[in-house]
Amino acid sequence: MEALEEKEEVEQTPDDVISLNISDYLDELELDAEEASVISNESDFDWSSIDTSNLPSSYKTNSRQEKKLLQLADNFLQQYSHLCPDRKPLFIHPLNECGVQKFVSTTVRPTLLPYPDMYYWSGCASFVSDYLIMEPLKCPVTPPSSLYSPTTIVKYQRGNCFDFSMLLCSLLVGAGYDAYCVHGYATLEMCSLDQTQEVCPRLRKPPEVLVKEDPNKYRIKYPLEPKSQFELQQKAKEEEEAKSTQEEEREEEVVEEVEKPKRDPLHGLRVHAWVLVLSGKRKVPETFFINPFTGNNHSTKDECFLGIESIWNDKNYWVNMQDCRKGCKDLSFDLSNRFCWEIMFPESDEASQLPTESPKNSTDELVSDPSNALEHWGPCRSFEMPLSWVDRIKVSCKEYENPFPRGKKVILYDKAKQEKWAAYANADGLVERLTVYADSDRTEELEVKEWFEHRKDLLYMREVNHQTQLITDHFNPGHPLLLKAHTYTSLEPETGHTVEFYHKARVDGLWKRSETATEMTEYFEEREDLLHKRHINFGERDQGMEMAGGTAEANARPIVQIKEYFHRNPKKPADEDVEERVFKVIDDVIQLTYHLEVYDIIPSKVVFARVIGREKREGEIFLSRENTVKYQPWSSEKHKNMRYLYNLLWELRAEQKDLKQLVRDSEAEMLNILTVRENEEANIKLTVSIYSAAQREQR
């Protein structure tokens, strides 16, 4: 393809460019092979040693209809090579594992595997990328000479990009998608499965949705400040000078970059295969590509895809007739457009759009006569594609649940490393780990995230921040203690813990509790009394009391202050609706702060203080105007009544006693949580899912 050969200023033919690149950069190709061997971490697999004696007869011979198909394909290929001499040879009928030529469309075997995830493209793509070991093409600028059946690829769990694409396309077509295998060209990173320059998908931030605010056309327009024209001119001159200096610096940087041999000498020539999914079927809203090596979907305008030669599925074969100088971003994927795509077997009675007139000096007997070309082309219009020669693709439950052939899969990203394991491969239920580094060499760890499955304690994710030394455990719903998340540095008590709960399953509506050695803060939601926060301050224990080995009541920390915050209750007047109440337990002071009205500036307050010089007796409530301070400018007469204040103080004393007990219960609950979590981590147990057939058989 002219666009993909990237002609230099020196006049050279495309074949000369390819041969020159291959001969001059042989060392680079050897390095690519070494990189691929490092990725595989195994010795090269000898495909010539595989056993084909037990394969069905359809693998070893061609039926009468298949032989006719190969003749028509040869006819099409001859016309194509004659009429498009500058194009690369098509990938039409490579050899299979038995050395028999097979048409690529008959190698696609539509299969729907009996697993829920395999009904969706994401599940199929993820399975193929995890199940197979990537092998690079022997020659990066030409397609392979052989294409094995998807059943053989599944059996040996390895293959090149064409093998990946054929297996993935077979699964997608079987699941009802309008999917096609693509023979084209891609970048070095995509062909060699190099993701070290990409951001890990788990670290990508979702795009921010900008909310446009409606401008108020009635707002006041203030006059602009006067500006000096001379100052503006001077500022413009300074900006121009700064731009000129920046451009010079950029030119110097560009010169330095050009001197460095970073450009791929085979850019635009590297052959790659991937999968195309057209919109329409299975409610796919937009056409997209799938890279079979990674299982990720890409836009058809992605710059990593540099061109397309042909596509095929189990029904037909199409040749791209569009210009690919700008990659695939301007391509039309309307396969019914005969000017964009040349179909091998037209589904209607329309004739092919390939020109049938040959040059005057042509010596090709097949297409020297236009009528002869049409005669050879005619049978293609009425030909029906034979069924696939490949057996049904089968994947056992054990193979599906343990897709990684080496036990685990390691993917290197930019400043990150991702590791994946099969379920039940690790005793602690670990299935994935993501390590984030501070540098591109991946030497200094910043953060580690781990994902778990089938744990009895319902732990599904753990985050470890190496900068703050904080560990955060996340739990699925159903934990006996209703845990949702737990942040800590150590499981020792009073070392700093933040626990989140599933508040809808709790009676008190508590969703978060943070505790240190000196304070505790609790957050609530959806409570009838509209309480949303409680803060407790603790004092220091006596020197003779030790925390380790004692109960919460025996080693209780003295409560200094309890502070509660309430939301606004619209059913009450603002000066009767408490917003904040403070119980200073040691100082024996109770303070109430009420909500503000719309027109208020200072809130109403009531303070009950201790009477100086009077001994406190248990059960006694002493109230006088000396120990009561209030500010209620809009209060009713009942707030001025001492009887009302006495009853209010009596209720607050009772609530203070209950609050102290609630604080002790919270301390005991935190100790219980830490004890339970310590036991769960010491004795990790995994549950066997009723849907895991392999684990049930093993058990």
TrEMBL record:
| Annotated Basic and acidic residues bias | 234-247
- Please give the chief subcellular localization of this protein: cytoplasm
List where in the cell it is found. Cytoplasm, Cytoskeleton, Flagellum axoneme
The domain of life is Eukaryota
Residue ranges occupied by any CEP76/DRC7 peptidase-like domain in the UniProt entry: 271-344
Q: Which UniProt keywords apply?
A: Cell projection, Cilium, Coiled coil, Cytoplasm, Cytoskeleton, Differentiation, Flagellum, Spermatogenesis
What residue spans carry the region label Disordered?
A: 233-259
The UniProt entry, under InterPro entries, shows: CEPT76/DRC7_peptidase-like_dom, DRC7/lobo, MORN_DRC7, Papain-like_cys_pep_sf
User: Which cellular component terms (GO) are annotated to the entry?
Assistant: motile cilium
List, for all copies, the residue spans of the domain called Dynein regulatory complex subunit 7 MORN.
405-689
One GO biological-process annotation of the entry reads: spermatogenesis
Family statement drawn from the similarity comment of this UniProt entry: Belongs to the DRC7 family.
Name this polypeptide is given: Dynein regulatory complex subunit 7
What species is given as this protein's source?
A: Quiscalus mexicanus
